[in-house]
Amino acid sequence: MRGNGLPFRTCVLGRRGTSAFPWSLPDPAPVARPARRERPAPDRFRHRLDGDRLASRGLPAGTEVTVREGGRRPARGDLVLARAGDQAVVGVYDVRFGRPVLRWDRGGMWLGPAWDVVGVITAAEPPLLGA
């Protein structure tokens, strides 16, 4: 007998595979990891800037930008492409009074309910200089 008067060990801490209790419990089964879902390839497309609205950011007229559709949610200060019907606008994303705004060098515009932020600009290609 041990010091507490019980005929078995009362310590719960034991070595792996050994039970500290008088009854035997099966070893826990290993937990299988869930299968990883494959993400679909993000849609990327190009858009050509038609004006010098973002020249202060190094994007003159004629610059082609690559937009990743369905990527991360835009944060303040990101360059984004917004679209409403046939009209597409590139600008700096911002939030004023709780509403989304696109800004550029000489102004900006509120993004109403008809506007959809397509995605964040991931790359820019400068225009070719004419000879």
Describe the 3D structure.
This protein is an all-beta fold and 131 residues long. Helices cover 0% and strands 37% of the residues. It has a seven-stranded antiparallel beta sheet with strand order 1-2-7-3-4-5-6, with no helix packed on it. It starts with 42 loop residues before the first strand and ends in a 6-residue tail after the last strand. The mean pLDDT is 77.
Question: What are its keywords?
Answer:
seven-stranded antiparallel β-sheet, mainly beta, single chain, elongated, 131 residues, 0% helix
Summed over residues and divided by their number, the pLDDT gives a mean of: 77
Distance between the termini: 100 Å
What is the strand tally?
7
> Strand fraction band?
35-45%
Q: How would you sum up the major sheet?
A: 7 strands, antiparallel
Determine the fraction of residues in helical runs and give it as a percent range. Answer: under 10%
Order of helices and strands: EEEEEEE
Q: Calculate Rg over CA atoms.
A: 30 Å
Structural category: mainly beta
| Strand ordering within the main sheet | 1-2-7-3-4-5-6
Shape: elongated
- Low-confidence residue ranges: none
Q: Give the helix tally.
A: 0
